[in-house]
Design a protein that fits this description.
Length: 239
């Protein structure tokens, strides 16, 4: 893996690591998900984005929620997040301080043309709380272009620190209203790419207008010396 561009991270609030993960890293999580799908539906599927499974999930919200709830409660998410391929980048961004992983590792299932869970413009700090130096590693499980709803970021917006999220939308989402004169960059990614970004970086996800599901994982790291919110679970030491 090439050296981490720490200067770019400090300036822009994010850094991309291309090809950081491989199929081997994703295999345990994918096996868990497909096993749950078989238990629930009685059918076997070869991949998480098999068209038949996508159609089944997209048309059955109860199945979608079952797979979401059951997958996020199993250790595969934490084990993937503890990979040296991720923790070494986090350590470099923190100046080789001792790093901890937050136990709560969100797993998202964004179905085609569904916006109820759309991540509107926000800072992770608004929801994650704790120390502002927390870093998110955003990990798509498939190629994620504009069509699949790739992340969008506002470079350099992290330097302003936490800002008020004053507009309430989609029942439980909030976004800051006075931000839209900033530059925006679309972060198209391939499977295996990982986007690391500062908790105060303004970002959003696009609407998934493809014919497949956008699966993604959000692992969060911070220096062991920094505080985290209890709602993010235990602090797992990274050796």
């Amino acid at each position: 893996m090439p050296p981490v561009d720490i200067a770019s991270f400090r300036s822009n609030g994010f850094v991309m690591t291309r090809g950081a993960l491989c199929d081997f890293d994703f295999a345990p999580l994918e096996a868990r998900f497909l096993g749950l799908a078989k238990e629930r539906t009685g059918e076997s599927y070869p991949a998480m984005n098999d068209p038949a499974l996508v159609s089944r999930i997209n048309g059955d919200h109860d199945l979608e929620m079952y797979l979401y709830e059951e997958t996020r409660n199993h250790p595969e998410l934490v084990e993937l997040s503890r990979s040296k391929k991720l923790t070494s980048v986090a350590a470099a961004l923190f100046g080789d301080e001792e790093v901890v992983l937050l136990e709560k590792v969100p797993f998202r299932i964004d179905c085609p043309m569904v916006i109820r869970e759309l991540a509107v413009w926000h800072q992770d700090h608004f929801y994650v709380k704790g120390d502002v130096n927390t870093i998110t590693a955003w990990i798509p499980l498939q190629e994620t272009t504009f069509k699949e709803g790739c992340l969008m970021v506002m470079p350099g917006s992290h330097v302003d620190g936490p800002i008020p999220h004053d507009v309430h939308v989609l029942k439980k989402k909030y976004y800051p209203s006075d931000i839209f004169a900033r530059d925006v960059r679309y972060m198209e990614m391939k499977r295996g790419d990982v986007l690391f970004f500062h908790s105060c970086l303004l970002h959003s996800s696009g609407n998934n207008i493809s014919n497949t599901i956008r699966f993604s994982i959000q692992a969060r790291f911070l220096p062991a010396s920094c505080e985290s919110d209890a709602g993010m679970g235990k602090r797992i030491k990274i050796s």
